[in-house]
Amino acid sequence: MIRHSISVRNLIEFVYSAGDIDNRYTSVLRAKDGIVAHQYVQKGYGAGAKAEVSVSYTDVFDDVELILSGRIDGLFIDTDNKVTIDEIKSTSKDIIELEAPADIHLLQVKFYAFMYAYENSVEQISVMITYINPLDKTTKIFNFTYDIPKLQKEVIDVILLYLDYLRKINFIKQNKDESINNLSFPFTFRKGQRNIVKNVYKTLTENKNLFLHAPTGSGKTLSVLFPSLKYIAGKDVKIFYLSSKGTQKNAAAEAVSILANNGLCVKTVIIDAKEKVCPNDKVSCNPEDCEYARGYYDKIKEIIYKLLQSNDMITREVLAAYAEEHKVCPFELSLDISLFCDIIICDY
């Protein structure tokens, strides 16, 4: 049985994203401004409304147990128990010119509506998509009402598309758990290493935090990575190794390679900053200025499959080679492939 967790947004964007990378419709300030814009809309909801409501949905589809998660921007329940869910989207476009919501935005709120209805036994539900321009705070709202059976069919159809791809990826990774279970520590334990391994594993199983201070050359990386791998066997979780220096990322990659030479079969990606991996002289992520942005989303699924099929350690050099061969952005490729990797080594 495959057990897989993913957010609604990540699932929908992976299945339905198409066309080019184009940052001309976003900005550096968008994330910060988007938060402020969301809060501006939410403050106007009035008494009784709820903001940032978590929802989840778990179901078994043949050999896959899927755990979906998401967060509703706004939830309204009136005196007649009519439920309305709001999804807020910030945009730099002229609000007046918007004639309909983007399909991907509407699908996202449909998922949230179905998940809420499933959890709360609601037979009919209304949704609204609120577009807001963060600069002038102008808004436009689109409203829809759905019967749950019809909504459920649409949601399940999208899920099945994603699961078809997931099964292909999982076939490539089928030896992961067995290789972890059979893995032994590759060296004779140095002084203190065995104690570190035990405490890291204990901390993970108890869902606590561990602060470790040890000198250079004491084997910290392997002592932390080895029990972390033992912990993730049979679980749908990832290991994130965060570093502030490139040399520390190299040390983590070397530790994974040592374990791989001892039988470990996992997928690892090293993520570097966009400015460091961009093949152009100037970072300009749009199809007019960058050939690696053109048609990126039309090509990426097949590239991810091929890359995972041929590589366990996905380094900057591996990403650059695939990016050059297929004319796709190496930075975005590293982010997208991380969804299917077991170890992610990156900056913090």
- Model regions low in confidence, pLDDT < 50 over at least 5 residues: none
Number of domain units: 2
Measure the end-to-end span: 33 Å
Name the CATH homologous superfamily of the largest domain.
P-loop containing nucleotide triphosphate hydrolases
Descriptive report:
The chain is of the alpha/beta class and 348 residues long. Helix content is 43%, strand content 21%. The chain has 12 helices and 10 strands. Strands 1, 2, 3, 4, 5 and 6 form a 6-stranded mixed beta sheet that branches. Strands 7-10-8-9 form a 4-stranded parallel beta sheet, with helices on both faces. The protein is globular and about 70 Å long. It starts with a strand and ends with a strand. The mean pLDDT is 93.
Structural descriptors:
348 residues; alpha/beta; Rossmann fold; 2 domains; 6-stranded mixed β-sheet; 4-stranded parallel β-sheet; 12 helices; 10 strands
Outline of the structure:
This protein has 12 helices and 10 strands. It is α/β, with parallel strands linked by helices. The protein folds into 2 domains: 2-171, Alpha-Beta Complex (Lambda Exonuclease, Chain A), CATH 3.90.320; 175-347, Rossmann fold.
Please outline the helices and strands.
Blueprint: E1 2-7, H1 8-16, H2 30-43, E2 50-61, E3 64-77, E4 83-90, H3 103-120, E5 124-132, E6 139-147, H4 148-172, H5 176-181, H6 193-205, H7 220-232, E7 239-243, H8 246-260, E8 268-271, H9 274-277, H10 296-310, E9 313-314, H11 316-326, H12 330-337, E10 343-347
Parallel strand pairs: 1-3, 4-5, 7-10, 8-9, 8-10
Antiparallel strand pairs: 2-3, 3-4, 5-6
